[in-house]
Amino acid sequence: MIEHRHLSHPDLIKRLKRAHGHLFNVIGMLEQGRECADIAQQLHAVEKSVSAAKKLLIHDHLDHCLEHAVEGTPRQARNALAEFKDITKYL
Q1: 29 near 42, Cβ under 8 Å?
Q2: CA-CA distances (angstroms) from residue 39 to 19, 22, 56?
Q3: Residue 18: pLDDT above 80?
Q4: Whole-prediction pTM value?
């Protein structure tokens, strides 16, 4: 497998670790019998953290991976367009 890293990956890891921490807190809150509103607030934080990480990953991919392919041959441009269509299903 080819190593694929971008400058944004450390920030992405930080965001996902934050989401992991929120999710861990939710589990603890459920085990402790905490109020539903408090649990919902933590779940919202998990959702926002994961959503922000996904957005960063997709935008970084569009900026760095697809941009170079579009500047290439017509075949590379077609492949880049197909890749763009494929990744947008995650938006």
Answers
A1: yes
A2: 14, 10, 26
A3: yes
A4: 0.74
